[in-house]
């Protein structure tokens, strides 16, 4: 995610000590992120004997036995399917709700606009463990417990702040003049949105959707509490890998991390945009 | 046929009044320029005519039809925006065709109109490009072509040249004037650039503080300002003003000089354009402060009666800072303003 070869701030290049500090920090931060991923990959691609053996070579053995065994493990396929189902639902819900909110924030002035922007982020301030029990009780009463939709609702709550903020910055990046020009050229509000705004924001909306997907994909706490039979992959792994051999844990970990990494990498430009950092 | 009539239009944003009860009639095929400093309400007025802004009160009529309750698309207008507003996801061809496609014109008609207007604006070689591959001047041409292709009754332009380089602006100005004169549309053009206004307009509406101060032909606005503001806003350098006190019936004392003037009033201001002053034996006692030879003429900034006074003089004349001059105003070019109201007097 962070890349050591780019973006060294030139203004701080004054002293040798300053340079050293910058590079040390860069290396440290990269190691922080990359070393666990590297170890995970190495071990996932090694044979069970290599994983538990000592000394270690530090290089992958390119043995797919662990991954193969993991893929054939009872329940993995179903958990994977549940994960995808919940993540797709989360994606649809959070864009369906978040994108109109982002559009409204960027285009209209209404009382409480700033408060709303704050509150939307505030939803992330509630610790999920605190909410999990009352939620579980409520879900059982309404029959939403152990369903993909129920879990997707919780994940949507987690993903919406990001959906709103990303789409807000996307819509704000489209000059109102473009919409106005479309209005004067014969469009009503909806047609102007459809013909001018939508084509321009679509890549960003897709990125925002992928991000919501990733949030749901990675979420484990609510998934573990709110599902029993229909576990998602993270909840399934938490439950089963606890008691599994080491090489299986690594294989499971790799199966979780790699899709998330690929997704985040694909949409990184738009995640920066969320914080107003130009990255074009 | 599209005469535009604006009746008693006002716009308030909260407690701020952007427009005070505007009345204005723009004749069919007239080129009207709304001229004023930023914040004078000229863009707001244009946007109300376009339907992008709702007036707080009043009526807008286009071609005998009341339109102030209609959305922009039903007003028979086309607009050119300050930042061009060329759609970045469409080619130049599709940009120009955008409005025609909304009208659901047959493809042959769309092709014909796009090619005709593209030729008119000299962008026929750019039709396959996207806006990102165009220069500012080319984008401006696309925006104008897109408006012209609609063959609207009314074209509204909001400072269309203000983002162009000086040289390009000059070129586009001349071109716009030619193209719009042939298109037989009524044009309303907003600008803060007085040279642009003078060169393009059939009539100029000078705006200040949300009011139209004067609406008249460019020469009329220049020669006979209806208010002190107009004289001080238009012309480079602007008009000179000196306080005048009545010395006898129809005689006014201006900086020690007796000048014949209006019979009525008692607190007036004397006004003269810098180019209407000549060096003579009789005139205002002036001390030259700054001398700027500009080739065709020499701009002298002098002091008269303790006030700054500019004169555009013949460049053959030898003047140096500190010299004492006598500046004589051309009698038929003298204008008088009421010192309280700022309106033309006499």
Automatic annotation (TrEMBL), chain A:
Pfam families: BPD_transp_1. It is found in: Cell membrane. It is a multi-pass membrane protein. One of its GO terms (biological process) is transmembrane transport. Residues 80-267 form the ABC transmembrane type-1 domain. One of its GO terms (cellular component) is plasma membrane. The keyword Hydrolase does not apply. The keyword Isomerase does not apply. It comes from the Bacteria. Belongs to the binding-protein-dependent transport system permease family. This is Carbohydrate ABC transporter permease.
From TrEMBL, chain B:
GO terms for biological process: carbohydrate transport. Keywords: ATP-binding, Nucleotide-binding, Transport. GO terms for cellular component: ATP-binding cassette (ABC) transporter complex, substrate-binding subunit-containing. This is ABC transporter ATP-binding protein. InterPro entries: AAA+_ATPase, ABC_transporter-like_ATP-bd, ABC_transporter-like_CS, ABC_transpr_MalK-like, ABC_transpr_MalK/UgpC-like, Mo/tungstate-bd_C_term_dom, NA-bd_OB-fold, P-loop_NTPase. PROSITE patterns: ABC_TRANSPORTER_1, ABC_TRANSPORTER_2. It comes from the Bacteria. The keyword Glycoprotein does not apply. It is a peripheral membrane protein. Gene3D superfamilies: 2.40.50.100, Nucleic acid-binding proteins, P-loop containing nucleotide triphosphate hydrolases. It is found in: Cell inner membrane. It comes from Devosia ureilytica. Residues 4-234 form the ABC transporter domain. Belongs to the ABC transporter superfamily. Pfam families: ABC_tran, TOBE_2. The keyword Metal-binding does not apply. One of its GO terms (molecular function) is ABC-type transporter activity.
């Amino acid at each position: 995610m962070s890349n050591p070869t780019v973006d060294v701030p030139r203004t701080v290049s004054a002293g040798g000590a300053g340079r050293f500090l910058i590079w040390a920090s860069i290396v440290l931060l990269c190691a922080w992120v990359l070393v666990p991923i590297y170890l995970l990959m190495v071990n996932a691609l090694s044979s069970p004997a290599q994983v538990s053996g000592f000394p270690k070579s530090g290089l992958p053995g390119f043995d797919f036995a662990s991954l193969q065994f993991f893929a054939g493990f009872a329940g993995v396929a179903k958990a994977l399917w549940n994960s995808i189902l919940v993540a797709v639902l989360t994606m649809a819900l959070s864009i369906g709700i978040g994108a109109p909110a982002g559009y409204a924030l960027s285009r209209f002035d209404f009382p409480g606009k700033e408060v709303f922007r704050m509150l939307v982020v505030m939803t992330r301030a509630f610790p999920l463990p605190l909410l999990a029990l009352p939620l579980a009780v409520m879900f059982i009463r309404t029959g939403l417990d152990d369903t993909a939709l129920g879990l997707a609702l919780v994940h949507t709550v987690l993903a919406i702040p990001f959906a709103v903020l990303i789409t807000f910055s996307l819509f704000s990046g489209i000059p109102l003049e473009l919409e106005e020009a479309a209005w004067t050229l014969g469009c009503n509000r909806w047609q102007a949105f459809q013909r001018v705004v939508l084509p321009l924001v679509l890549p960003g909306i897709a990125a925002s959707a992928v991000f919501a997907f990733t949030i749901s994909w990675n979420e484990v706490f609510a998934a573990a509490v709110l599902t029993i039979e229909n576990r998602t992959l993270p909840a399934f792994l938490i439950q089963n890998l606890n008691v599994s051999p080491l090489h299986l844990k690594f294989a499971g970990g790799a199966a979780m991390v790699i899709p998330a990494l690929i997704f985040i990498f694909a949409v990184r430009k738009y995640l920066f945009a969320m914080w107003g950092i130009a990255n074009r | 046929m599209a005469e535009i009539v604006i009746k008693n239009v006002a716009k308030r944003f909260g407690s701020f009044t952007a427009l005070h009860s505007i009345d204005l009639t723009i004749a069919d095929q007239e080129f009207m320029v709304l001229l004023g400093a930023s914040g004078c309400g000229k863009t707001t007025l244009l946007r109300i005519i376009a339907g992008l802004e709702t007036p707080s009160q009043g009526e807008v009529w286009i071609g005998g039809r009341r339109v102030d309750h209609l959305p922009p698309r039903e007003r028979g207008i086309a607009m050119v925006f300050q930042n061009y507003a060329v759609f970045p996801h469409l080619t130049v061809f599709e940009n120009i065709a955008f409005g025609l496609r909304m009208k659901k014109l047959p493809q042959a008609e769309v092709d014909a109109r796009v090619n005709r207007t593209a030729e008119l604006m000299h962008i026929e070689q750019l039709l396959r490009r996207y806006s990102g591959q165009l220069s500012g001047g080319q984008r401006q041409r696309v925006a104008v072509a897109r408006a012209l292709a609609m063959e609207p009754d009314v074209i509204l332009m909001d400072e269309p040249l203000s983002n162009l380089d000086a040289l390009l602006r000059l070129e586009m100005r001349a071109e716009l004037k030619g193209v719009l004169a042939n298109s037989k549309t009524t044009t309303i053009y907003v600008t803060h650039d007085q040279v642009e206004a003078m060169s393009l307009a059939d009539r100029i509406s000078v705006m200040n503080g949300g009011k139209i101060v004067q609406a008249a032909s460019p020469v009329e606005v220049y020669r006979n300002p209806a208010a002190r503001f107009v004289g001080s806003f238009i012309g480079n350098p602007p008009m000179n003003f000196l306080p005048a006190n009545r010395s006898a019936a129809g005689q006014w004392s201006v900086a020690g000089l007796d000048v014949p003037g209006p019979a009525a009033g008692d607190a007036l201001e004397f006004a003269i354009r810098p180019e209407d002053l000549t060096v003579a034996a009789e005139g205002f006692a002036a001390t030259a402060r700054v001398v700027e030879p500009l080739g065709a003429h020499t701009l002298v900034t002098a002091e008269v009666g303790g006030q700054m006074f500019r004169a555009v003089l013949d460049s053959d004349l030898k003047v140096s800072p500190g010299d004492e001059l006598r500046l004589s105003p051309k009698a038929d070019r003298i204008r008088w303003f009421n010192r309280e109201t700022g309106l033309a007097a006499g």
